[in-house]
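Let us work through a complete example step by step.
Step 1: write down the sequence.
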Amino acid sequence: MNENTLRFIALSIALVFASTPALACGEGAFNAGKGLAYQGYLAPRPATVLVYANPDPTASHADRDALYAGLTKAGHKLTVVKDAGELANALRERHYDVVITAFDALDTVQAATADVGNAAGKTALLPVVARSDRDLPQLRGHFDAFLVDGASLGQYLKMIGKALPANAL
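Step 2: predict the structure and record it as tokens.
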């Protein structure tokens, strides 16, 4: 092979690797081959996550279960509780990096966190709000990270990463 052929091959290889998609906002994604439909997420900082979710009869169970499965596959250790008693027990049993709950249930979560002696300053609260409430001053003034109802798995992963305390690695 002559020198020009080697340069062409080296340039071609460099272009192939340079053409892969770039990621932003701390999200991790991987593609399982060029042209395949499968794409998955990977949490850059896996966390222990507690979800305090009151059962909503209008919510799609399949969507919720797919979201929970996606968070687990991305690397988070997920626990889901449905009432205040389960919430208090879960907080007594272990420390959670992030607690995700509806905005209107924050008082219940904060009270349970204080009652069990869990280090409230080290557990990030990640509220889920209705789209119409996303600009409320009490939300924006107290939380750097929050989720809008109906958020995608990618948005959940991004906001969990944003809510994590700097020392939760």
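Step 3: interpret the result. The chain is about 40% helix and 20% strand.
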